Amino acid sequence: MRQRFLVYMVVVVVFFGVDFLGFCNGGKLVKNFYKESCPNSEQIVRDITWKHVASKSSLPAKLLRMHFHDCFVRGCDASILLDSTASKKKTEKTAIPNLSLDGFDVIEEIKSHLEETCPGVVSCADIIALAARDSVSFQSKTSLWKVLTGRRDGKISLASEVLANIPFPTSNFATLKKDFEKKSLTVHDLVVLSGGHTIGVGHCNLFSKRLYNFTGNGDADPSLDAEYAAFLKTKCLNLSDNTTIVEVDRDSSLSFDNHYFKQLKLNQGLFQSDAALQTDNEAANIVEDLGASSDKFFTEFAQSMKRMGAIGVLTGSSGEIRKKCNAVNS
Ligand code: HEM
Ligand SMILES: *[C@@H]1O[C@H](CO)[C@@H](O)[C@H](O)[C@H]1NC(C)=O
Ligand SMILES: *[C@@H]1O[C@H](CO)[C@@H](O)[C@H](O)[C@H]1NC(C)=O
Ligand SMILES: *[C@@H]1O[C@H](CO)[C@@H](O)[C@H](O)[C@H]1NC(C)=O
Ligand SMILES: *[C@@H]1O[C@H](CO)[C@@H](O)[C@H](O)[C@H]1NC(C)=O
């Protein structure tokens, strides 16, 4: 009897605990949340995003990574957008992994248009999620994944919380798995979402140890393809170069496709965290599947983005709808 009660309690706690934290798939987010309150909002986000991508091809990678960093720290609540102030001290954007985050001006431009059309209605957190999707979709001119909406904006942003939540490019598989588990994401999500690295660039100093001093003996990472390592050495001349950038997905960093997974199979993943996906059987099988079928990659990416986009969201009357994305309402 007592045992049965305990089992019951565990079920209740797990079930409601998960729901409380908003970790359920989509949580309380819905399709087209602004249908009545701001009918043109999704169109406005798309138009402005596309206008910018048309003249800046690096933007999709910036916005996709911004969405990831927003969601992994305090949930998808636009905490990544807040500027430090005298009273707010150091916010997330000032932390080291913010290196090369960009696209803040585009989010702010979208926000100011939306404030003209429907003041106080559309959250900055939803704008990031929509703009990330739309920017990546510019190339194919179709929405690559569905974005549920209804997120609200958080009031807290702390640089000190970033390192504990954003995965390191030097992490091994076990660590990455834990980083994602903390966000209720699976190994499957980890592999699929790492596919975000099919676009964009990385700075030399974040992987150059793999080229020049992997174990401290002036050696290279043996798991890195030798020809690729030689190529990277022509770009990154020494261990301290923190300004040169290279494509994360070799020769394909502007097209959103499954090429990243093919490169992993050739031992040409740029970061240790990319190569790590080949060191676990379950993950390597997923890499294999995604590399073999771009349809599969697009389908799976859409599903995992839905889960990532729901991490710790504020809904209902939690948080607020900011007037400007870089500051909380006073
Ligand atoms: C699995 C753990 C992950 C690690 C360790 C990681 C690490 C990194 C690092 C170190 C960079 C280079 C930043 C720079 O040098 O400027 C980068 C770039 C990028 N990451 Fe990740 N990342 C991870 C997961 C993700 C996820 C889940 C997404 C999105 C779905 C993502 C999207 C991107 C994009 C688009 C870029 C290129 C940014 C640009 O071009 O400026 N990453 N990542
Ligand atoms: C990122 O952090 C550095 C300090 O580590 C800061 O100088 C820089 O302005 C930050 N970038 C953004 C976009 O806020
Ligand atoms: C390589 O790593 C070792 C051990 O960490 C360090 O002592 C050495 O100075 C490094 N070499 C270079 C060129 O930085
Ligand atoms: C390392 O490379 C960078 C970029 O090529 C260069 O500016 C810098 O002087 C080099 N540093 C050393 C210590 O060789
Ligand atoms: C790059 O390295 C130089 C020299 O070590 C340092 O002064 C500078 O702050 C670094 N820049 C970034 C963006 O980390």
TrEMBL record:
Under PANTHER family, the record lists: PEROXIDASE 25-RELATED (PTHR31235)
Which cysteines link up through disulfide bonds? 38-118, 71-76, 124-325, 204-236
Family, according to the entry, reads as follows: Belongs to the peroxidase family. Classical plant (class III) peroxidase subfamily.
Q: Where in the cell is it found?
A: Secreted
Keyword Ion transport belongs to the record = no
Give the organism, scientific name.
Ziziphus jujuba var. spinosa
Protein name (record): Peroxidase
Residues annotated as binding heme b:
197
Q: Which GO-annotated molecular functions does the record name?
A: heme binding; lactoperoxidase activity; metal ion binding
- Fetch the SUPFAM superfamilies from UniProt: Heme-dependent peroxidases (SSF48113)
Task of the protein: Removal of H(2)O(2), oxidation of toxic reductants, biosynthesis and degradation of lignin, suberization, auxin catabolism, response to environmental stresses such as wounding, pathogen attack and oxidative stress. These functions might be dependent on each isozyme/isoform in each plant tissue.
Q: Which coenzyme or cofactor does it need?
A: Ca(2+); heme b
Active site, per annotation = 69
Task: Give me the segments passing through the membrane.
Answer: 5-23
